[in-house]
Amino acid sequence: MRKPLIAGNWKMNTDSQSAAALARSISDQSPGYGAVDLLVCPPYCYLKTVSAVLAGGTVLLGAQDMFHEANGAFTGEISAAMLKDCGATHVILGHSERRHILGETDQAVNKKTLAAHQAGLIPIVCVGELLSEREAGQTAQVIRRQFDGSLAGLSAELMAATVIAYEPVWAIGTGKVATPQQAEEVHADLRKLIAERYNAATADRVRILYGGSVKPDNAAELLGQSDVDGALVGGASLKADDFLAIAAAGTLLAGDDVTRPQNA
Ligand code: PGA
């Protein structure tokens, strides 16, 4: 069975003090959530601070992007090795804000995905359709194109180690969440696609997260879908209680007999 992954994308939020406090609060309470993997992704400049706070615990650390080159004259960019050096084990790639605000292409995401694996970082590769694409009935086509473009060239072993996040663009930061059926339909299609491109065993191993306005009150239903293996959480990951309430939904689903926190 795939272990659920609950990942917090802090985006361009927090400062050194609040980042450390948020990480501390999550880490202190994490022992109750052993049935899920917890991951936090702060801004680059707080990775080391957060890494120090998380040291010795089980909460994982990730970054929100990286460049595909190992080093050199790439002003403003950061490499996979640098992220590892700061304590990161994961990296979010191809987030819709990078694709749509910063013009990142599937090809760029693909280079980053390969470079992340080469450096030993686990990539969380995001895909998702625009509202106009959904309304035009193009969701499956867009997701398949992004999958093939962003994840080209991976061996079955590296594919199995990759995390995919389905994040409908219209649901990110908008409070409009996909229905559990809408999420499951895309997740199941992604798994079918992995089976087509690789094989059923590989498809069975890949964790596919849902992202887009995941909150404590909708997490259980989303995470209850058979092909939804966790959540990539933006806004609600900035409050430890909300993030952990979402993790609690995942924990219950994973069948662990844990005490549900008061706020969940
Ligand atoms: P949101 O963001 O939870 O604030 O909608 C999700 C994301 O962008 O990963």
Give an overview in words.
The protein has helices at 16-29, 47-54, 80-85, 96-100, 106-119, 131-135, 139-150, 156-161, 180-197, 200-205, 216-223, 240-253; strands at residues 5-9, 37-41, 60-63, 90-93, 122-127, 163-166, 207-211, 230-233. By secondary structure, the protein is an alpha/beta fold. The chain has one domain (5-253): TIM Barrel (Alpha-Beta Barrel). An eight-stranded parallel barrel has the order 1-2-3-4-5-6-7-8, surrounded by six helices. The longest helix is centred in the C-terminal third of the chain and has 18 residues, at 180-197. The two termini are 24 Å apart. Mean pLDDT is 95; it is low at 256-264. The structure holds 2-phosphoglycolic acid. 2-phosphoglycolic acid (PGA) binds at residues 9, 167, 172-173, 211-214, 232-236.
